[in-house]
Amino acid sequence: MNKLMIGSHIIELEQTTSTNSYAANLLHSGKQIEGTVIIACEQTQGKGMDQNVWESEVNKNLTFSIILYPDFLDPAEQFRLTEIISLGITDFVKTLLPSDGNIKIKWPNDIYIGDRKLCGTLIQNSIIGNNLSESIVGIGLNVNQESFLSGAPNPVSLKQISGINYDLKQSLLGLCSFINIRYNQLKTKYYAKIESDYLSLLYRFDEWHDFIVQEKSVHARIVGITNYGQLKLESVEGDIYNCGMKEVVYCL
């Protein structure tokens, strides 16, 4: 199997509404090179989950999208893509903050340092027949931004933690290389390792906390991830909840 090189083809934009939208328009015009990266200095309508706005100061952070064709995955397995993207990002961040043991993945794919959000991901999958046909992976990593004004509850950047100003181009190449390694693990079906690594980094795993589950307050702990990527909670009363994206809220 040929090894994919994510980031070997990079499209650099000064400004765009969102790199995911730009990538989608590219795909509408025809098939692109797998691993193509679209990066923008400024996104005017950057989006997170549930249409949340992603704040990013111009020329301070990494806001980019990757085009992938994970047609080896059944649609029921698409959470595996979420796992490896999250792991690739955490692998990279650990090289910059090697002494920080608080680097975690907040289900499904936010990267946290302690209780603060460092990175968000928005993955848009297309399905044809029984396979994923194409995926657009949008990533927003807070790198050199020193203040956040949007009112988002808990953002943090690499520079706020380390005091270091990072080279954005080198950071992009480094991040792409770590995602590439994890994507090739997925292609070669290293599922047990991927699942184990993801669970080992899961934010608040096996810790008792308050959650809102289906609009009800529940004191529970995270005990795992279902085969379909749902968050599995166990309440203090012993009840089990398998939660989809809009069925659980963390009480931070």
Write a compact overview of the structure shown.
This protein has helices spanning 19-29, 79-96, 158-162, 168-187, 191-200, and strands spanning 10-16, 37-43, 62-68, 103-106, 110-113, 116-128, 131-141, 208-213, 216-225, 231-235, 240-243, 248-250. It is an alpha+beta fold. It has two domains: 10-200, Bira Bifunctional Protein, Domain 2 (BirA Bifunctional Protein, domain 2); 208-250.
Describe this structure in words.
Helix 2 (79-96) packs across helix 4 (168-187) and helix 2 crosses helix 5. Strand 1 (10-16), helix 1 (19-29) and strand 2 form a beta-alpha-beta unit. It is built from 5 helices and 12 strands. The mean pLDDT is 92. The strands form 2 sheets. Strands 1-2-3-7-6-5-4 form a 7-stranded mixed sheet, with helices on both faces. The protein has a 5-stranded antiparallel sheet with strand order 11-10-9-8-12, with no helix packed on it. With 252 residues, the protein is of the alpha+beta class. The protein folds into 2 domains: 10-200, BirA Bifunctional Protein, domain 2 (2-Layer Sandwich), CATH 3.30.930; 208-250. The chain has helices at residues 19-29, 79-96, 158-162, 168-187, 191-200; strands at residues 10-16, 37-43, 62-68, 103-106, 110-113, 116-128, 131-141, 208-213, 216-225, 231-235, 240-243, 248-250.
Keywords:
252 residues, alpha+beta, 2 domains, seven-stranded mixed beta sheet, globular
Q: Determine the mean pLDDT.
A: 92
Shape: globular
- Give me the CATH architecture of the largest domain, please: 2-Layer Sandwich
CA radius of gyration: 18 Å
